């Protein structure tokens, strides 16, 4: 049963990686478009050095993956290496193929969707194929606001560099493709469920509870942890939010307690 589960996840990771390669080589790259993160940097270096994109996708992502290897379990290693290998090989062999669309806006749309769905699928099933892009998806719901800002700056810098290299018309299409890819990756990773269960750990639990009730009308369940706080109020909280208000709720909680811990669970109905 366990081997079947691993094979099931591996199949989706490989599918997501191949779909990402299709989005890059058959839609975005032929129109001199790129996205942020390591993928965008790979496109730039591939163009400037006149070498295959697949090579840079592998070489640029590998150091980030090796840097994080201690936090990877064997299955995550398998999914990550399989996804990165399929992405790189797919881009390598698809490079000679002609673009599937001639119109830049259509190519940006199709490429952004394919790349985003591909990255999100790989993340959902335990892989990791774009160091900066994947890290941004994984930190957007966590408490590391500084890390998220740095990743957005990195992505913005790559897109800006693309404007200087390819031209500003292409840069505008690239920004559109990047935003679309980011949103599609979010949907693919988290699913289309509208409801999220939010687990909050904070020493300022009562203040957060009152703020969520006043600002969002949320009823917060206090999970008693008297041994941790000594006052019986509970340090752990549980509440439900919808995906449209999730980022705002997280931001308000972090303003009240920057040291809090937040975990999000998607509720499928």
Automatic annotation (TrEMBL):
InterPro entries to which the protein is assigned, alphabetical: UPF0750_membrane, YitT
Q: Which membrane topology describes this protein?
A: Multi-pass membrane protein
Offer one Pfam family short name for this entry.
YitT_membrane
Taxonomic superkingdom? Bacteria
Annotated compartments: Cell membrane
Give TM regions: 50-69, 76-94, 106-139, 151-168, 174-194
**Keyword terms:** Cell membrane, Membrane, Transmembrane, Transmembrane helix
Coarsely, its chief localization is membrane
Protein name, entry field: YitT family protein
């Amino acid at each position: 049963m366990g081997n079947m589960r691993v094979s099931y996840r591996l199949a989706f990771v490989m599918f997501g990686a191949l779909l990402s390669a299709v989005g890059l080589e058959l839609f975005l790259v032929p129109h001199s478009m790129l996205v942020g993160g390591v993928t965008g940097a790979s496109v730039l270096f591939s163009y400037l050095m006149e070498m295959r994109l697949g090579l840079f996708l592998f070489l640029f992502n590998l150091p980030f993956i090796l840097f994080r290897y201690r936090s990877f379990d064997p299955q995550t290693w398998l999914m990550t290496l399989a996804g990165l290998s399929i992405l790189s090989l797919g881009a390598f062999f698809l490079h000679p193929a002609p673009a599937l669309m001639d119109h830049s806006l259509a190519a940006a749309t199709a490429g952004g969707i394919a790349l985003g769905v591909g990255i999100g699928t790989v993340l959902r099933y335990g892989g990791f194929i774009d160091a900066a892009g994947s890290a941004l998806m994984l930190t957007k719901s966590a408490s590391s606001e500084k890390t998220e800002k740095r990743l957005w700056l990195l992505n913005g810098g790559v897109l800006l560099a693309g404007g200087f290299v390819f031209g500003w018309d292409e840069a505008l299409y690239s920004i559109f493709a990047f935003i679309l890819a980011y949103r599609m990756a979010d949907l693919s990773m988290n699913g289309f469920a509208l409801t999220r269960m939010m687990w909050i750990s904070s020493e300022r639990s009562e203040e957060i509870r009152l703020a969520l009730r006043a600002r969002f009308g949320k009823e917060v369940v206090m999970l008693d942890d008297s041994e941790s706080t000594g006052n019986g109020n509970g340090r752990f909280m549980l509440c439900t939010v919808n995906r449209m208000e999730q980022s705002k709720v997280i931001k308000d909680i972090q303003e009240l307690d920057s040291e809090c811990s937040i975990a999000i669970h998607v509720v499928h109905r």
